[in-house]
Specification:
Chain lengths: 326, 257
């Protein structure tokens, strides 16, 4: 029976997803038995649902860029500059949501476009290009904000858009988690079944072959960076509705957790293979680790150590799996 | 047989940096004609076919297809004209499933761009069965390409080019790494193109393959066409002699017909 399953088509094509789900379940049982009081109450799950979407949405979106065999390190600063813009326009227009939304989302896409152009047209490796833009956008935030934050509480609280993004659905489910779920499903659909998702896989697999098959490699890469810029802006906006405040370092803590979620989720660092569902589970794992570790009674000093362990182990295992296959 | 010009290249030049890879290439391909490009490694054969398929853009020169001047800027464009290429390697992406490879770059989609996976799998099965003749149970349309042998990969690339009905098929070393049986299959396939009034340009290092298959031989050396022979004009041993001369002297005497 188990042998049958291991040989089945479903297992072969979903090996990555199945392994990551098994790891998540094991981790969950460790939490449940190690800290039964915390994990038998709804409060901790609500807290997870409240905080995970902020980096989870970016992780889903970043999976596209990483499947290309590229990386974007600048998204924490794109979150910063677009959130600043959102806050400035929203307060400056006495709460004109559409204008604020339009301004920050376009800026996010513009920042993504710059990354894409640097990588494709100028030919700078993405890891270097996006370190540049990481500092650039954060620097711009500092120059414009001059170290001070923006409170949007007066123009955002009790508005319909606040309700739309961060209210509690059915009295207890954070709306941002529903956004996260819906976006995950949508992106999974695009990743697997849309022409664009298909092209992402081919370009990440072998750029030269993809080009010979008639795929416009540069455009695929640029669009991937642009959508990551958009979703960084979107995630930044959700965070602001939750906090009702912009602070100049907003977004800078996102780098580690977001990339960790994608890599732990099983998307190949070499490109060409990846999974949106895996990234989603990766978000659940990485997002629960900090509270989980504390609830288990370990000190907070262990958090980064265990992050590091999980990331290193998972990329090692996936790399070994891949090497065995070829 | 219709003697119309299918493809005409006029004074094509291509350079990479300071290196002139193609120098004033003039070339005519007629409908229903099989043309072989021969020459040493690095002579510019691959660059020439990449200019025709839209991977490289020439620095100067004109291209006419079906007597109309065309600018071939991309692979998608050359495919639309009716030019299909089968490359010796890199024709497929290894980690992706077979059915995705069959339709990469021209997916069957709905108006929103979502792929019709069912249709693609069905058509891929048809290609495997009817055009390639795969009977092995181990290979399905859902297999990643990395599990296939060299010959099987070549077969998939061929099947694909046949399925998408085209006027000119370009083959870059189609028999490389194939078994004798597979090679004969491939050469028969190329010969069969003539009956459908289709044309082919192919590159092959094996003169025996070339001589038995092509109607015309074009010898390329260091970016220039240095010889052009119809099959009637030259015997196999003469052609071999020419090639050896070229190889030894580094330059064959110009003998255009």
């Amino acid at each position: 029976m188990i042998n049958n399953f291991l040989n089945s088509y479903f297992f072969k094509t979903h090996r990555l997803e199945i392994s990551i789900i098994v790891i998540a379940i094991i981790l969950y049982f460790i939490y449940l038995f190690g800290a039964p009081t915390a994990f038998s109450r709804f409060a901790i799950y609500r807290a997870f649902m409240q905080s995970m979407p902020f980096f989870g949405i970016i992780a889903i979106s970043a999976t596209f860029v990483i499947t290309l065999g590229e990386i974007d390190l600048s998204f924490p600063s794109i979150v910063g500059i677009t959130s600043l813009t959102f806050g400035m326009v929203l307060t400056g227009t006495e709460g004109n949501f559409f204008l604020a939304f339009l301004a920050s989302m376009s800026l996010g896409m513009f920042a993504g476009l710059i990354n894409g152009l640097l990588v494709t047209k100028i030919g700078i490796p993405s890891i270097v290009a996006t370190i540049g833009t990481l500092f650039f956008w954060r620097g711009l935030v500092n120059v414009v904000a001059q170290g001070s934050g923006i409170a949007i509480v007066d123009v955002a609280e009790y508005t319909w858009h606040h309700t739309l993004f961060v209210s509690k659905v059915f009295g207890s489910i954070p709306a941002q988690f529903i956004w996260f779920l819906v976006l995950t499903l949508m992106m999974q659909w695009i990743y697997r079944y849309h022409k664009f998702g298909n092209h992402i896989h081919f370009v990440g697999d072998n750029k030269a072959s993809a080009q010979m098959m008639g795929i416009n490699v540069d455009n695929v890469k640029i669009i991937a960076f642009v959508q990551l810029g958009f979703f960084s802006a979107f995630a930044g906006m959700l965070t602001m509705y939750e906090m009702l405040y912009f602070w100049p370092t907003q977004g800078s803590g996102l780098m580690l957790t977001t990339l960790a979620a994608v890599f732990v989720g099983g998307t190949s660092v070499f490109g060409g293979k990846g999974t949106i569902i895996g990234s989603f589970i990766g978000v659940l794992i990485i997002g629960s680790l900090e509270s989980g570790i504390i609830a288990l009674g370990l000190s907070g000093f262990y958090v980064k150590f265990i992050y590091g362990l999980m990331i290193t182990l998972s990329v090692t295992i996936y790399a070994l799996i891949q090497r065995k296959k070829t | 047989m219709a003697e119309t010009n299918l493809l005409k290249l006029e004074d094509i030049n291509k350079s990479f940096g300071n290196v002139n890879v193609l120098k004033n290439i003039n070339l005519n391909i007629k409908s229903g004609e099989i043309v072989a490009l021969v020459g040493d490694n690095g002579a510019g054969k691959s660059t020439l076919i990449k200019v025709i398929t839209g991977i490289h853009r020439p620095n100067s020169g004109n291209i006419y297809f079906k007597n109309k001047e065309v600018l071939i800027k991309s692979v998608a464009q050359s495919r639309k004209l009716g030019i299909e290429a089968v490359y010796q390697e890199r024709a497929l992406c290894d980690q992706q499933e077979l059915y995705r490879n069959m339709f990469a770059g021209r997916e069957i989609t709905n108006f929103l761009g979502f792929m019709n996976i069912k249709e693609q799998r069905k058509e891929s099965e048809k290609i495997l069965r009817d055009f390639i003749g795969f009977t092995s149970k181990a290979i399905t349309v859902d297999s990643p390409v990395e599990g296939l042998s060299g010959g099987e990969k070549q077969g998939v690339a061929f099947g694909r080019s046949l399925y998408f009905d085209s006027d000119l098929i370009i083959l870059d070393e189609p028999t490389m790494g194939l078994s004798i049986q597979e090679t004969e299959k491939v050469l028969n396939f190329i010969r069969g193109l003539k009956d459908q009034n289709k044309s082919a340009i192919f590159i092959d290092h094996n003169i025996f393959h070339v001589y038995g298959t092509a109607d015309r031989f074009i010898i390329i050396d260091r970016g220039e066409i240095v010889g052009e022979f119809l099959k009637e004009e030259i015997s196999r041993s003469e052609l071999i002699k020419k090639m050896i001369e070229l190889h030894e002297s580094g330059r064959i005497e110009v003998n255009k017909t």
